[in-house]
Amino acid sequence: MTSPVRVRFAPSPTGHLHVGGARTALFNWLFARHSGGAFILRIEDTDRSRSTDENIASIVDALRWLGLDWDEGPPAPGYRQTERLETYRAHAERLRAAGRAYHCDCPPEELDRQRRAAQQRGETFRYSGRCRERGLAAGALRLRIPTEGATIVDDLIHGPVTFEHGQLDDWILVRTDGTPTYNFCVVVDDVSMRITHVIRGNDHLSNTPKQILCYEALEYAAPAFAHVSMILGTDRSRLSKRHGATSVQAFRDAGILADALVNYLARLGWSHGDQEIFTRDELIALFDIKDVASSGAVFDATKLEWLSHEYLKARDGAALAVLAAPFLRAAGLTPPADGARLAAIFETVKERARTLVELVARARFYFEPPSVYEPKAAREFLTPEGAGRLDRLLARLGTEREWSPPAIERAYRALTAELGIELVELAQLARLALTGGTASPPIFDVLALLGREEALARLRRARAAAGGGA
Ligand code: GLU
Question: Which of 186, 250, 442, 452 has most Cβ atoms within 10 angstroms of its Cβ?
Answer without folding.
Answer: 186
